Amino acid sequence: MSVRISPTHREVFFSPDDLIVSKTDLKGRITYANKVFCDICGYGAAELMGQPHSIIRHPDMPRAVFKLLWDTIQDGREVFAYVKNMAKNGDHYWVFAHVTPSFDENRQIVGYHSNRRVPERRAVEAVAPLYAEVLREEARHANGKDALAAGYRRLLDFVDAQGMPYDELVFAL
Questions:
Q1: 24: Cβ–Cβ under 8 A, 6 or more apart, which residues?
Q2: Kind and range of the H or E run holding 17
Q3: Is 11 helix (H, G, I), strand (E, B) or coil?
Q4: How far apart (Å, rounded) are the C-alpha atoms in residues 124 and 121?
Q5: Measured distance CA(2)–CA(5) in Å, rounded
Q6: Share above pLDDT 90 across residues of the chain, in percent, rounded to a whole number
Q7: Average pLDDT, the chain
Q8: Half-sphere exposure of residue 173, counting CA atoms within 13 Å on the CB side?
Q9: Integer distance in angstroms from the first to the last C-alpha of the chain?
Q10: What would the mean pLDDT of 45-62 be, rounded to a whole number?
């Protein structure tokens, strides 16, 4: 799917009782999407299967956040993150994501599982300016590799300045 979607700047919400669930293969291609996921993002399950999970990536999200996420899950560890996603119609929605690797019987990673919940509003208000700052840092560099490295450094500098590890910080927001 190479259709370019423009953000509408309209936020949509889902119920605190709902859980967005998806699974991907090792490359991040969607292998499962529950009804809540389909409903909030506006894609049908058939449209999502085999697509990169980044199909819902909002342009306001810095690449550095996804580097942190991917580095963590590829290392076999779970990660929590606040993510701004974009629906098929350009609307956006925030989630508190819990992403875990899926293992086979030999403890080899075979894919990834993500559960997303409604985030606390105060956490979104805290993280949105940080993400904007990291995105600005990434935009200062013409080379993609340099942009990612600079954004990642900015993200980690922020975490370090808070005096707690990332895992604790995410729950403290």
A1: 30, 31, 53, 111, 112, 114
A2: none
A3: strand
A4: 5
A5: 9
A6: 98
A7: 96
A8: 23
A9: 35
A10: 97
